[in-house]
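During the reporting period the student researcher (J.K.) took over the structure-prediction task from the postdoctoral fellow and processed the backlog of single-chain submissions. One of the processed entries is reproduced below for the supervisory committee.
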Amino acid sequence: MNRFDYIQPKSVNEAIAAASAPGSTYLAAGTNLLDLMKIGVSTPARIIDITRLPGLDEINWLPDGGVRIGALVRNSDLAYDVRFSRTFPSVAEALLSGASAQLRNAATVSGNLMQRTRCAYFQDLASACNRRKPGSGCDARGGENRLHAVLGWSEHCIATHPSDFCVPLVALDAVVEVEGPHGARDIALEALHALPGATPERETTLQPGELILAVRLPAQATVYAGHTRYLKLRERTSYAFGVVSAAAALEMSGGTIRTARIALGGIAAKPWRARAAEAMLENVKPTPEAFAKAAELALVDARPSGDNAFKIALARNIVVRTLTLAHDGTPKDMPALPASPFAATPGTSHAG
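J.K. obtained the following structure tokens:
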């Protein structure tokens, strides 16, 4: 681990001022950052510890029924908040399916949004990685790449974004509040993470020194509380990142889908919103055929980046499965294995 300056500001303004120096990075729980520092992937010259900034660890319900979640709210505190889990159950399901209980007790909302790819070549200093060292190449292109991207990738990078939490947030139109040297602004979470293109080292649309203050979920998203799920398929039952995942939310009216929301994870460098599939489901009956068509539309632009064509079929299947379970209704109790397609819940359909 490299030597660095450590700063613990007392206010947001102090934190932003400290982060204006080159080589600075913000520290919350550090569950991802510290691991990357230990292996030499991240080498910040200055760490700004934001864990004691006032007011960033609160969950505030807004007058219109939406919610504002402070950047330092712990994953477990948010997932187990009774009102939040009832109002946005797919987000709670995603949170409880990520990492271990110990990590969820430490990890924060903003840290989850800012976590970096788990691509093995990104984490291996002996490998060429354009995301870690621009212009060095991408060893993943010709390497072990069965878990890499099938949407939005480029010749320069085929990494995926690892977050569970971000997938239902993107589906539900979450907004990120940030503040930086040039003032405050809102960013749609869907626009926070960048696709690699020719500049994979540019992982987000944040400007230098900008600090995430909170995430907001709009009141409109509450209409999906009764018909929403998050599922992920992983290579072992728990404590694993998703091979593919999906969040689905349906607004039902008289046996017809009024509106739908779908997002996928594990298939691109950002959570992937399937807007064409959503539009196709509006004002149609929730049939297996409709869900299969929506899944085809969600993956219509997918293409293998290596030995991972199977992920496209898996993603289609999990979209269908998630839509089916969402239509069956949000379970009153969280499944024993949150987000697992193999965790049967009374009243839900089973895969054939």
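The committee noted the following: The two ends are 50 Å apart (CA to CA).
J.K. will present the remaining backlog at the next meeting.
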